[in-house]
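Following up on my earlier message about FE2/S2 (inorganic) cluster. Here are the inputs again, as you asked, copied directly from the submission form:
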Amino acid sequence: MNSFRFLSKNIPFNEGESIAAALEAAGIRQFGRDAVGHEIRYFCGIGACQCCLVRIDGVIREACVTPARAGAHIELVGADHE
Amino acid sequence: MNERDVIVIGGGPAGMAAAIEAALAGLSVDLVEQRPTLGGAIYRQQADGGTSPVQSKMARQRFARLSTALAGISANMRFSSVFLGLDADGFVLIENRQIGRIELIRSRAIIVATGAVERILPRPGSELPGVSTAGGLQVMLKETSRAPQGRVLLAGNGPLLLAVAAQLIRLGNPPAGIVEAGDPLRAAALSNVGLLSHPALLAEAAVYLKDIYRAGTPWFRGTRLTRIEKVDGALQATLCDRHDAVRTILVDRIGLHDGIQSNRIGLPAEQTRTGSAPVVVRAGDCREALGAVAAEADGRRAGLLAVSLLSGIATDISVAERAIARQRQAQALITRSFMPVAGGSHLASLPDETLLCRCEGRTVGDLRQLLDRPDPISDREIKHNGRFAMGLCQGRFCASNVAELVALLRPDASKPTPDGLTGQRWPIRPVSIGALTRAAPEDNCED
Ligand SMILES: Cc1cc2nc3c(=O)[nH]c(=O)nc-3n(C[C@H](O)[C@H](O)[C@H](O)COP(=O)(O)OP(=O)(O)OC[C@H]3O[C@@H](n4cnc5c(N)ncnc54)[C@H](O)[C@@H]3O)c2cc1C
Ligand code: FES
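Thanks, got it. Here's what our run produced:
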């Protein structure tokens, strides 16, 4: 099965799945905190709310509309989990 | 430069139908979709290309018809491409995420079909992880054919909650409950006989209700979800019924949904005069949120309108317009059936700590404080001084709630509009300045 890295974890995914769906399957629902301190997480699923932003190979993208890619490295946009 | 006749933004039923009509009339068509696949919110396909088992037979047939027609024409598909806006020189800005750059395209006409967003009322705790929109849960289950793990509560208002509940049941995880502010089974709603002239809608509802009844899923009607708290790693929802009786329920996931509204913030204005500026036509739920059948008809209408504006040949849009009118009538009847019954305004009763704008961390208390002054405050000041409807989502989720709450708090002043609060601005999606300054007319980067 394909996988990408989320912080230091390997996350498996099915071809074509979004990053958010793969993280959800791995039990990860919180992607750090944003500038005002709220937990970053999946919400609308359609790229509209901007609440699910992550850094994918250095580029900030919505986890919900971005397909997972083998070997990608995903980091948090803001602060880490406390 | 290579100018297109028509660029269609959005690959849902409206965009697909518009592209088909324009291409059938001989126009060159590009279709821009942010996702890697077609289908939009309703015909979302499984990630591996297979058909999701949660799609109804009727939905599958409608999508198959559109897909076959689209395969038969020569539209240029641009997937993983986000429409950012139309600049003053008439260039369409597209962020092509496959190659990581912004493209500028010229087109004689632009058909915007970006769909709807869900309406979500503020509730204390709705910013917590594990809380999403009900449609967001649905998107994920259509894409993966897996139900979310754990106990799921669906709450808010409207028929979409029933659809998502039935889909969760089909995937083997019946929801812990459906919390519905309206009561479509009360006498006044049942006497809504107009719905009898929409048998397809009633048949769809009957299938959902049968599945929900069989699974034993409780449907709490006339009830509102008023608060969400984290308790022992789970989510505790407080429910308040029409007699103000309060109870709590412990779950792992909550899907909220209080209706559907057009996703039109920042979109270019309609422009139906032909001249130097491109024609702009809106189609589907982003023009008027009336559901999938209307969206397809409205896409046909928009495609035909673009054809007549560009070629000067008269086209007949009356059939499409009649179909849209019929769906408008159906939606009005549904809205009436689902009218919230719980007393008092949800917005007026929110405690001060409730987040109104998640992006900027602005609360109900912040808004009350901002308005608590003798001289009137303008809509623009509410945004610029109060930082409401100002964040990354550009007000898509908060602007309508802020506008309504301002009207409640300031009944004697004019009611602000969501558009007045947000202003019309682009890019409609945050984009890096670096990427924008590297933007190039498309022909320069096709080497
Ligand atoms: C989350 C959600 C779930 C829904 N579920 C149902 C349901 O189960 N049943 C039902 O009857 N109705 C449902 N609806 C209502 C639905 O919007 C309509 O029924 C129908 O899908 C509208 O068709 P459309 O073509 O106008 O828009 P959509 O189907 O929403 O299509 C719009 C398309 O535009 C794309 N897009 C948006 N912005 C951009 C951009 N800037 N750049 C490029 N592409 C963009 C989107 O990715 C999408 O594919 C749902 C709506 C939402 C928001
Ligand atoms: S969940 Fe809303 S943009 Fe991704």
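One observation from looking it over: Chain A has a mean pLDDT of 92. Hope that helps, and feel free to reply on this thread.
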